[in-house]
Amino acid sequence: MRNVVxxxxxxxxxxxxxxxxxxxxxxxxxxxxxxxxxxxDRLIIGRFCALAAGVRFFMSGxxxxxxxxxxxxxxxxxxxxKPGFDPAQHLPLSRGDTIIGHDVWIGxxxxxxxxxxxxxxxxxxxxxxxxKDVPPFAIVVGNPAxxxxxxxxxxxIVELExxxxxxxxxxxxxxxxxxxxxSDLTNLRDAK
Length: 192
Description:
By secondary structure, this protein is α/β, with parallel strands linked by helices. The strands form three sheets. The chain has a six-stranded mixed beta sheet with strand order 2-5-8-11-13-14, with no helix packed on it. A hairpin with a 4-residue loop joins strand 13 (about 140) and strand 14 (about 145-150). The chain contains six helices and 14 strands. The protein has helices at about 25-30, 75, 155-165, 170-175, 175-180, 185-190; strands at about 10, 15-20, 30-35, 45, 50, 55-60, 100, 105, 110, 115-120, 125, 130, 140, 145-150. The two termini are about 30 Å apart.
């Protein structure tokens, strides 16, 4: 994805891919939704992530104020309705950056709402609507997304986060692919 993403509000780690047979190069147009520069929120995706077709990242621009009499965007619909509009009044709607950790797998048509953090190694099921943070190595499904289980026991998750193979050099990853692709923690721990 790094080769096709040009939006300065999207940061994508190495080796992350978007698998869309209808055009992965259209990720920004199809998947990065409701982003307005004044909010300043960013989409940050880690290394070695796998994003399936139809994944949607809604940004803070999707939020409407609920504390005023109308949530309708008058200023955006007609030039005559722009006078008196103060964009700064809408900045508190920003929920901050949306952050996807490393080695995250996001299934087809999953939706990630604004300001969500998804931990390393997490799995987001097909069609899930993620409205709250997802812990590392958690598997979440449904609408709203709910935790169904963790991929590993807590002590293994702590060690995997400490090892952080996704931060290794390409050479070290290449030398240790069998350890990364296995479930033998000893081999991963002993990687050189």
